Structures are given as structure tokens and as C-alpha cells.
Amino acid sequence: MTGVQKTKGARIAAARVGIGGPVGSGKTALVERLIPALLGRGIDLAVITNDLVTAEDAERIRRSGLIDPARVSAVEAGACPHTVIREDPTLNIEAADELERRFPGVELILLESGGDNLASTFSRDLTDFWMFVIDVAGGDDIPRKRGPGVIRCDLLVINKTDLAPHVGVDLARMHEQALAVRSNRPVLLTNCRKGEGIDAVVGMIERDVLFRA
Amino acid sequence: MLRLHGIVGHEADAGLHDRLHHVEHHGGIEFLFVPPEEAGRKRFRRATDRGTDCAVSLDRDEDLIDGALLWLEHDRAIIVRFGQQALWRLRPINATAALKLGWHAGNLHWRVRFEGECLVILLDGPPADYRARIAHLLAEGDIVDLADV
Fold first, then answer.
1. CATH code of the domain containing B19
2. Does residue B15 sit in the same domain as residue B36?
3. Which uninterrupted H or E stretch holds A32?
4. Nearest C-alpha in B relative to A130
5. pTM for this one?
6. Over pLDDT 70: what percentage of chain B?
7. What is the structure's pLDDT at B148?
8. Domain encompassing residue A141
9. Model ipTM value
10. Nearest CA to CA, how far is A164 from chain B (Å)?
């Protein structure tokens, strides 16, 4: 190709993928499943976790042995988690910039939000793509409530699918209603405890964010 | 997939006029339509009007604009086209109503612009979803709905 293109010789910034969702929906469990799956596909990775006033999730991931602990940064919101992923995401932007400075080859940074409510969304200034994690035990009416997190995310993940029969949830109907409220934009089902559905999430990140396929 | 990084120019750049004219003459202009609510993205994948699968990324300090040139070679160019941003223009009848409207718009995290006495809402979803949130203000006559949508 002979076209004018900035790509030649340019260092392209790491892609930034947000993971939000209610408390206990399985965001950290999803991160713990994504890390080995992404590393296994040769993706140079780093992680940022957000907590209210601790570094609990970051410490959990650092201790997991899944990733070099130096590649895990913690942001303490000190307030509602959405304030640092939407209204003023500078703490997270700086954390991501700092990871890119320390690890110049990093291709992908996962940013896990603190647990929040259904109105939680990510700023486009912070993330290139974001997913919202809900779980069947939270109730099959969650998609019908049409929270901005459920509606606007690039990918809705319905986690803990294995619990559906135990909490009286018709999983197929919940999936169908989630697709309906999202006008058929992507909805994937996972059981992070057993690693089910993770390949589909990774595949979407590879295709739509990392442009590998 | 055509991998594109960064904005290489603008369709109105005088220095690119002759080259773009040549490409246009050979029918090589492709438009990449981006909805206004998606314009803030720094990385996305979309197809042009001719079906070219484009994987686009921008530097963190770059902003996509209407008319941005993402690719240019001797017989082909890819130019960004924004759809028109849907707006909802509201005029509060007095300062009290303005405070109420501003309070709601802030709490609902709406994207807004200020235009004199009007608050202009930049819609990211169906207008009915927005209208429902302040239905009481509209019903009470506190807000004049100038209904651009």
C-alpha cells in the first residue's frame, strides 16, 4: 500500500477495556478468568482495579499468581465508583498511562470498576470498550429494568448461569429479554466459577478491540 | 480488515484537494459513517458504505471529526461522516425551573450544551426515554419543550 498512513512507525496506545456491574456480580472473577485466557493468546496485559477505600481486588489479583503483580494497579475511588470511571476518570487515566510507561509493549489494559448500580457507565475518555456484568442471582428482571449500564455497554455479560435453576430464573428468557432491551447488541453468558463462556468474551475482545481477526 | 491508525488529514485540507479530487474522479471515495454518540471512541470497528471492514484507532489526544481522512492512497480514500446529532432543546420558564431542570439533567448524567436561555440535551437514546424522566416538569409547564427531536 502506498497510502498516507500514520501507523507507520507509530506506537499505538494500549486498548482499554472497562468491566463494570453491581456488587457481587462476578467482575473480579471474570478478570481472573480473562487474565490466563488473554495471556494464553499472547496478549500483553495489565490490570487496574477500583475499590471504594481499599485495594482489596488488586491484592486478590496480585496474589492469584495469574499475572506479574507489578502489572496490577489499584485506584481507590473514595466515593461512588462511577465518579472515577465516568464523571472524572483522571485517576484511572493516570493509572493506565503509568502502566503504559512502565510496560511499553502492553496491548490491553483491563479496568475493573468498583461494584455499583445499574446506572453505572464508563466515560469514552477512559475506555475504548466496556462490558457490564450482571448475574442470574440478582434476578431475571435486571435486564427489563433498562439501567444505563445494561443498555449502553458494548457487551453485557450474564454471569453465574449455573445458579439459574437454584434461584428460579429462566435463563433463556433472561437472555432473550437482555437482547431485546439492547436491540440485539451483544449479550454473552458466563459461569466464571467453571470458566464457561470465557472464550466467547476473549474472542470478542480480540476481534472488536485488538483487531486480531 | 483494513487497519487504520490516526487521522491523516481532513477532506477540506487545501493540500489534499488535488489528490482527493483524483481519487473521487476514479470513484475511490469511501465514507465511514459514525453515529454522533459513538464519535468519542478512540478505537472501533465499522464498515464503510462500500463494505470495507475498518479497524480504527486514534491517539489518546486525537478527536474524530466529521470529514476526517483516515486513509489515502492513489485510488482510494476513507472519510468519516457523522450522522446528525439528535438534540432536545428545552427552555425553563424562570430561574426556579432552570434550577430544577439543571438538577435533573446533572443527576441523570445527560450530555448538555448551554444556549442562552435554553438547555440543549444531546441525545444518546430514544427521545421518549429522556422525556419520561422529566415528564412532571413538562406537565407542570415549568419547561418549554422546543422539540428539536
1. 2.60.260.20
2. yes
3. helix A27-40
4. B41
5. 0.86
6. 99
7. 60
8. 15-209
9. 0.86
10. 30
